[in-house]
Amino acid sequence: MTATISERRIATVDPPARQSRRGFFQRAADGVHGAALTYLLSRDLFGYDKLPHAEPLPASAGPRSAYELTPRRPHFPGRARSVIHLFMNGGPSQVDLFDPKPTLDKLHGQSYFSKIAQDVSSPQQAGGLLRSPYKFAQHGDSGTIVSEVMPHLARQVDNIAVIRSMYNSHPNHEPALFKIHSGRLLPGRPALGAWVVYGLGSENRSLPAYVVLDDPLGLPVNTVQNWQAGFLPPVYQGSRVRSTGSPILNLKPEEQRPPVIDRLQEDLLSRLDEIHRRQRPGMLQLDARIKSYELAARMQLEASDALDLGQESQRTLEMYGVGNKTTDSYARRCLMARRLVERGVRFVQLYINGQIWDNHNNLQSGLKAACDRTDQPVAALLTDLKQRGLLNETLVVWGGEFGRLPIAQIPDGKDLSSSGRDHGPRGFSLWMAGGGIKGGVTYGGTDEIGFAAAENPVSIADWHATILHQLGLHHERLFFDRNGLHEKLTDTFKPRIVKEILA
Amino acid sequence: MTLYTERGQGSAIEDFLADRRADAYDRLVDRLLASPRYGERWATFWLDAAGYADSEGKRSADPIRPYAYKFRDYVVRSLNTDKSYDRFLLEQIAGDELVDYEATGEISEEVVDNLVATGFLRMAPDGTGSDVVNFVPERLEVIADEMDIFGSTVLGLTIKCARCHSHKYDPIPQRDYYRLLAIFKGAFDEHDWLKPAFVPGQTKVKKAGRLLSVATDYELRQMTQRNTRIDREIEQQQSKRSDLAASVRQQHLEEQLKKVPAGERGALRVMLKTDPGKRDARQRELATRYEARLTLDDAGLKKHPAFQRAATEIDRTVKSLESEKLDRPQIRALWDRGVPSPTYVYRRGDHRQWSHLVGPGVPSVLTDGKTPFRYQPPWPGASQTGRRLALARWLIEPNHPLTSRVMVNRIWKHHFGRGIVQSLDNFGKLGSRPTHPQLLDWLANRFVRSGWSLKSLHRLMITSSVYRQSSRVTPQRLQKDPENQWLTRMPLRRLDAEQLRDSLLAVAGVLDERPFGRPDAVDVRKDGLVTSIGKRGSRRRSLYVRHRRKEMPTVLETFDLPQMTPACQQRTDSTVAQQALFLLNNAAVRELSRDFSRRVLSFTADPVAQVERVYRTAVGRSPNDEERQIALASLLQLEAEFATAAVESAERQRSAEEALAVLCHTLMNSAAFLFVD
């Protein structure tokens, strides 16, 4: 059974007044006040901070001729308008970051392999239980525990909710990544971000709705499949925005021509298309196409502007760690993420090249290096969003695809000092902040040694449903008809929203 | 024309316009149907439905399926020769049970075709090539996908919902799903599984289980001839190499001899020619003192400058010759293996929760409920069960309620933009109602009576007055038929991904028309752009570019090429800014616009004629007065601007060419180019 497209849509918003309002702001943005003021004005004077009121499409318009990204009303009022997903590919070690295990200190070195043998990917390298090389302390008013390798985040703990009882169902990166990004262990399903923009559209028409800021040094495991639209129309897939060089593929031509030539070509194209359209009244696809060229033109202007960090103050740049060799790359992306959600981009996802959190060996130095690269930029992002009043409506999520084992992995079987930890999908930690999440909370827990989620386990489907819930989307009502099935992010799982961490 | 759209060639349209005879339109249709383009175009739809890909999918390694392309070629050829649809289905569902390919001495083309056709049932994404995911649940996933493809494509029924349990309003109960599975059990047996292509490092058994080494004598002769020729060339190269080695060794000897006392040289030459075992005491002494210095061992030879470069060159030639040799032809096929394990209904689709035993059978809702499903080995003494052959024969019975209707509806959809039943893959109660049920019945009848000829069906549709009406939308039509379900007008269509890429190449005059064979590889650039058009890339039709699930050319993906997970019954069209950015800014597209302009320039230097030529090539018609005026004015203005901007006189001379390239590029971006009425 295939529902018509109009039924499939949740609702569609396009108040007629918006065009002119946007025109005004575009003009205003050119003036001395700049984009920031435009943004503030748009929120304060027009109540833009509330989700726009929806009017269902008039019935006479029939189904849409094309899938697109007009903003749409959520199922119920949500707390968050945008999501920033700080994805930590590789599997950050929970027992060394957020989930201290005194038992590990006590039993350090004791053999434990036989009890978890079936979960150890590299049994020949398995050592005894391994205590954390780091010290833990309570921070903030809430007393949330964070280890010493994240000193910057430690000052932000009252804004975040740590979940200690996440679990995944596969010990290999590839399937685990598919699971955390798209709900099942297989490729080919739409990513979380794709579902969100399918459901809500975008509030910025000059930028892609789902932006992926990947690392200039290289793609993560599973590469572009991490942000694919799967069986959803391709318009919902993540758009890679590069933090160096031209930010969007084909945004600018590789060769430059005199600007007058570009203008002449633009003019010629629009005149020829106008003739074509005039001869074919009532063709919605042609209007959509002309709009897409207009958006392309706006993107050429605005994407560069949105991503121009030169507009940031020196203080802000320093706070994020831009210019500092260790933090520079990630800091730039965090700052871009803020600039993007500020402009109404719905879903921003950050990646790091390779797998810096995949600490199979040299845990002590490797994990610290990963934290050194990211801790300051991440904490600065929270501070910055908060001081700009954006944290309330921006859901920030931090975490990887799984965690790590409590026992040591000793690469050569001898040298304990070079030891790391193997993949541990049965229990891991991540945190969420802003967008209606209660700060200063620590939820759930693992067993005595941090091997598996034990207290209030949170499945990935639970986690997905919770994110959707904060955006005002119900996981059962956000579906796509395909081969007679209502396909959903949470598939056939029966998730539970983690109400305990909601404000 | 929805048969296929030829941008950049334009001859069919010009011929049509020049043809003043009363039946000019019918002649046009005949010409189009006779063109090899027809099969290439319509193969796309069948391959979409079958889930065609050149890789296994499922895992991020996405290993290549090296022989999948033969199925693609089979589909193209079958359509071009207008193979009857009943035969087409018969081969794809039970080709292995049609002829005893193991017993027949000489393999005919027909036998090869039959086996290649079964590739239809080998298209689903499949991760079981890796040992860690080759267990019963993963195998069942693959089988479920194949059933899904079979049901949607051939029966026009969505059957996969019945895998886990029966649904109240669905006429296909769970039991029927498993009965259908039992038909395929001889080939798809989760307890007796053939693995797909061997992936280095991911499996212990290094044998690909799905290849049949069956070939016609012609293919084998071709292979032998070619390989013999190559072997001869390799031999020549190798003798060249040993000649070279001998002469370098001789040269070395002469050089070294000059360094020993003249009196001993003669004795040394004699010593070297004497077999070491037969040397006298004096010669042995000389050997100890001088031999190592005088002769070159293999390592020394390799390092010798006179040898090294030439030998490397020879080695490279040999290597490339080796790679040109043909492997014994292989077919990626599905075949019945004779002893299927029993089929149980799996509760919730879980193999650990088996319940009733079921036998093979087709969905009961499609039968009279009395006649049992009969099958027998396809020939006396056959090891095959004959179950799929019986299924195929049942499907192509002239009065089968679905087979002909489903195909007629599919063809209709691709001509008129929507099916008479809008849900192509979901006929019946749970799908959408047909808008014109009598028309569907009539067409299906005609189709079967014409001997299941697809070309006749096309001709019937596109010579109809419905097809020949205009695409104009009037307020009245819009009001009374907003969704065009009553066919008050022809729909406007955007070129789909393959058509667009092929058209860009064709108008530029660089389309490589070579059909068939191994797909052309693609290039994944560091910034993520996947290219095929670039300088190094393929310029063949998109159909012949490698369809690897994880890396499709950016141009195709941007313009909505579907992902095969497992297949695609209906494509979605998106209209997004990335498409505009691609056409406007992509360097390869701009390069093609230059090729286009050079092509026009070689034809005429007159701007008026150039505009005419650009229009005819890009959109297959002359510009109207307004368009001509605008295009011409812009062309002249562009040329003036280029001339002003030019610093050197050489650049100034090229300003006309540059200006024309901009016009060409603009046309390649225009709605008139991208949309077909």
Quick rundown:
The complex is a heterodimer of chains A (503) and B (677). Chain A has 15 helices and 18 strands. Chain A has 503 residues and is an alpha/beta fold.
Features:
heterodimer, A: 503 residues, alpha/beta, Alkaline Phosphatase, subunit A, 34% helix, B: 677 residues, mainly alpha, two-stranded antiparallel ribbon, 3% strand
Account of the protein in words:
The complex is a heterodimer of chains A (503) and B (677). Chain A is α/β, with parallel strands linked by helices. Chain A has a domain at 78-107 and 122-247 and 314-501: 3-Layer(aba) Sandwich (Alkaline Phosphatase, subunit A). Chain A is 34% helix and 14% strand. Chain A contains 15 helices and 18 strands. Chain A has an 8-stranded mixed beta sheet with strand order 7-6-8-1-9-13-5-14, sandwiched between helices. In chain A, strands 2-11 form a two-stranded antiparallel sheet. In chain A, a hairpin with a 6-residue loop joins β15 and β16. In chain A, α2 (17-30) runs antiparallel to α3 and α13 (328-342) packs parallel to α14. Chain A is globular. Chain A starts with a helix and ends in a 15-residue tail after the last strand. Chain B has 677 residues and is mainly α. Chain B has 3 domains: 36-210 and 336-396, no CATH class; 217-324; 492-677, no CATH class. Chain B has helices at residues 11-18, 24-34, 36-50, 69-80, 85-94, 109-117, 136-155, 174-184, 217-257, 262-273, 281-294, 298-303, 305-324, 387-395, 403-416, 437-449, 454-462, 475-480, 497-507, 554-558, 577-585, 587-601, 607-619, 625-645, 649-653, 655-669, 671-674; strands at 211-212, 331-332, 343-346, 354-358, 493-494, 523-524, 530-531, 675-676. A two-stranded antiparallel sheet of chain B has the order 1-2. A two-stranded antiparallel ribbon of chain B has the order 3-4. A two-stranded antiparallel sheet of chain B has the order 5-8. The longest helix of chain B has 41 residues, at 217-257. Chain B starts with 10 loop residues before the first helix and ends with a strand. The model of chain B has no long low-confidence stretch (mean pLDDT 87).
